[in-house]
Amino acid sequence: MAEDKKVDFEKLRKGFGVVLERRKQTQGVTTETSDHGTKSKNLANPKQGKIPTFAGEYDILKLTLTSPNRKQKGGYIDLKAAWSDLNIYEDIFASCLTGNIIITDGMGLMENVPIIGEETINIHVKTSGIKREREEITTGPFKGSLSEGIINLKFRVYKISDLIKMNEGMWRYKLHLISEEALINLKSKVAKSALNPATLEPRRISATAKNIYSQYFKRGRKPKDQKKFFIEPTRNLTNLIIPNQTPFKAFNFLASRAVSAGKHAVGSSFVFYETVKGFFFVSMETLMAGGGTGYRSEMGEGDGKELEYSAPENPVREVYTVQPKKLFAKSDNLKNVAIEMTSVDEYKFESNFDVIKNLQAGMYSNRLLTHDLVRMKYDTLDFNYMHPENTEQLVTEDAATGGTEVVDVKTMGAEQKNFHDNFTHLGKGRLCSENQFAMGAPESVISFYPTNFGHDVRFPEDIGAEGVHGGARNALNIIPNRVEQWMQSRMVQSQQINNIKLSIRAPGLSTRTVGDLIEFKMPTQYLEDRDGITPAAHHTYLSGYYLITKLRHHFTAEKYEIEFEAIKDALNSPVGGDTASADSPYARSGVT
């Protein structure tokens, strides 16, 4: 076609299909850093008194049991001489911290206190010598959220188990612990809408979450007992109604529909969880991009602008390496301890990939059918893991007149409803190549959901009908549910993080917490790159960046260890070339 006769495809496409502007304006990032040897300052430059004398050394500053039924000595008992095993559990998919402690009781504590489920356990522990790891975040919604290495927690005792008589007068038992907020949660129910109670105006999901937390977990409590709540600002307004759910369930319900205000977080991957620093309401894409260190500004409830996010230059909190013990021993013992602190004692891949589950969960492709009851119409939105570039000829030209004719309007309209994976990821390579046989079939997973997309109606004043008792009028504002933005994205992202799961056991480091981004260095399996003398090359696909989602702090009389599960939603490097094979579903459908 001649240069002066080019067809303006964007103009031709205008008006066809549903255009979700946010997906056109945003783009996920790939986490990367130029310094692959990053470590905490204390371990990178070890000095006497600032790191442990051996890997796993810790200081237990406080371990007490307090009972309202014990009046002597302020009602508390020091457990430092009575405990034998202590565990603290963090989980990014759980709403609160849990733990347990094994007590060897030769003083009749269970009877004398007595221990009946009304007690609290106070724990104050840290890795020996460890100081503040890095400067705190100074601005943004996550100011003060980084773990400084001090585990200072108050738990409620909710259960006793494994009661064993060891000898005459000596018993051993396990006390099960949970955050106090978990009990407040079970005692409460949230029955409210997301509307601002003062103005009846719709609010952002993040503002609603903040309001619920203040109402149920801060009211009537002493400031020292009020934990911080770190909330990532969300984008869209909502008038969701929470129907008699517990606060934790309400947070998770809101998370399932939240869309970040930052352009780096394209999908809908919010989670609600607790760490030793407090509670978090944040998208996993933000955690993958480097967490709160990327925010440079605050955003008020009424601010409708996108929140700017700059991926940190060095987002990795620590680097864990698989290497033989003592192989590269230094003459300086402090350096040996520092190296051992981030050396992997044991690791195991709990999962790697499952094509059947990925296909059934809609990760490769899925379809959303929305129905608009007001306009009496339905719409179709397709997701494909990889972007299908359409190569069909949509326009023909008459040789005699030079005129053009659109021959496939339906295909052009469909392009507006298709979207692909442009989320933030932990690697440059997708979980599969274009040759994956399971791709290219959106009809394999079909979801149905009502929509009011494009129905935004905001009245300047309340014109609804008066209440039956002559009270306030009912609002008639219409706020879209934005199902087109969150449902398919959340489905895909939830399955992507279920592919590569890595379990690691390493020396205890009290600065570690769920939500941390780490780098994992795993030796290659290529024999020619492993000579056993020099540091091995790293695994092409499974090395790289991981996000910690579960963490166990394990303390015994001998040492402190951490065991954590980390996920990876992308391979470290792309697989294969840029073109699909003849057997690819994209190749068969005329798409490359």
List the helices and strands and how they pair.
Layout: H1 9-13, H2 21-25, H3 41-44, E1 58-66, E2 76-78, E3 83-91, E4 98-105, H4 109-112, E5 120-127, E6 150-167, E7 170-179, H5 180-186, E8 190-193, E9 203-204, H6 205-217, E10 229-231, E11 237-238, E12 241-245, H7 247-255, E13 270-275, E14 278-283, H8 284-289, E15 318-321, H9 333-341, E16 346-351, H10 355-360, E17 365-372, E18 377-384, E19 395-397, E20 404-406, H11 409-415, E21 418-420, E22 446-450, H12 483-496, E23 500-507, E24 517-521, E25 544-556, E26 560-568, H13 585-588
Parallel strand pairs: 10-14, 15-24, 17-22, 18-21
Antiparallel strand pairs: 1-2, 1-5, 3-4, 3-25, 4-7, 5-6, 6-7, 8-12, 9-11, 13-14, 16-23, 17-18, 19-20, 23-26, 24-25, 25-26
The rounded distance between the terminal residues' Cα atoms is: 23 Å
Helical content (DSSP H or I, runs of 4+): 10-25%
Count of individual beta strands = 26
Radius of gyration: 28 Å
Beta-strand content bin: 25-35%
Helices and strands: which structural class? Answer: alpha+beta
- CATH hierarchy: architecture of the largest domain: Roll
Q: Regions with pLDDT < 50 over 5+ consecutive residues?
A: 1-5, 11-19, 578-592
CATH level 1 name of the largest domain = Mainly Beta
* Discrete helix count: 13
Number of domains: 3
CATH topology of the largest domain: Phage tail proteins - horseshoe like beta roll fold
Largest sheet: 13 strands, mixed
Using the alpha-carbon principal axes, give the shape: globular
Report the average pLDDT across residues.
81
Q: Which superfamily, in CATH terms, is the homologous superfamily of the largest domain?
A: Baseplate protein-like domain - beta roll fold
